[in-house]
From TrEMBL:
Stored InterPro entries: NAD(P)-bd_dom_sf, Sc_DH/Rdtase_CS, SDR_fam
Similarity-based family: Belongs to the short-chain dehydrogenases/reductases (SDR) family.
Pfam families xref list: adh_short_C2 (PF13561)
Identification of the protein by name: 2-deoxy-D-gluconate 3-dehydrogenase
Swiss-Prot/TrEMBL keywords: NADP, Oxidoreductase
GO molecular function: oxidoreductase activity, acting on the CH-OH group of donors, NAD or NADP as acceptor
Length: 253
């Protein structure tokens, strides 16, 4: 099999939530596969990842995006196209978490989580999708969750958003596949990142989770390099509306 099947040379990839964790590893993987990368980030002064990607010889730009402020979202995609004249790959990774029992869950927290984890993805995808449909090619990759399938505990808004995101992925795929625009999602399992620090810092909880993962370990951000390149490349041209679970076997068990 030719390695060109997984090459992203000549492609422009935009990714949100990329300054740390899974997003950072995915951005690096896209660049390693040959893509030029636009970093959609709130702190535009943070240039550590920008410097790393440019040192790899890739064209990299930073565009401001705050997923909590709706007016910045469409402007972000317009900014990508202004800088690169195209967008071939969109990775919707940015998201937040709020934990509280359902009976005590604050309305403001609910609204914030739904805005950041679902509505922002819809707006980014719709705006990029208009361009991709017109050029008759593109890849949109959403970052879902095990809570796209399970309800979780003390995270009702997050579960609702990630469940909705899974079906949004399928809905967009149903409409756009005929235009050669593939819309898919990756559902991470238990990954050792800042978002899960409340779990990883609780030794008993962390060990209990690890013991239930068939692979015998928490995942790492680098475990997402292969899946993101696969879904962004020609290797997945007939993959549509799928939720690719990357969880060390958790869901299988």
């Amino acid at each position: 099999m030719s390695n060109n099947l997984f090459s992203l040379s000549g492609k422009v990839a935009a990714i949100s939530g990329c300054t740390r964790g899974i997003g950072r590893s995915m951005a690096i993987a896209l660049a390693e596969a040959g893509a030029d990368v636009c970093l959609l980030q709130r702190n535009i002064g943070d240039k550590k990842l920008y410097n790393l990607i440019t040192e790899m010889g890739r064209h990299c730009e930073i565009v401001y995006l705050d997923i909590g402020i709706q007016t910045t979202i469409q402007a972000a995609i317009d900014g990508v196209i202004a800088k690169f004249s195209r967008i071939d790959i969109l990775v919707n990774n940015a998201g937040i978490q709020r934990r509280n029992p359902a009976v005590d869950f604050l309305e403001d927290d609910w609204d914030t989580v739904i805005q950041c984890n679902l509505k922002s993805v819809w707006t980014l995808s719709q705006t990029a999708g208009r361009f991709m449909v017109s050029q008759k090619s593109g890849k949109i990759i959403n970052i879902a969750s095990l809570l796209s399938f399970q309800g979780g505990i003390n995270v009702p808004a997050y579960a609702a958003a990630k469940g909705g995101l899974a079906l949004l992925t399928k809905a967009l795929s149903n409409e756009w596949s005929k235009f050669n625009v593939n819309v898919n999602a990756i559902a991470p399992g238990y990954i050792a990142t800042d978002m899960n620090i409340a779990l990883t810092e609780n030794e008993a909880v962390s060990e209990d989770i690890r013991n239930r993962i068939p692979a015998g370990r928490w995942g790492t951000p680098d475990d997402f390099k292969g899946p993101i390149v696969f879904l962004a490349s020609d290797a997945s041209n007939y993959v549509d509306g799928e939720i690719l679970v990357v969880d060390g076997g958790w869901m299988g068990r």
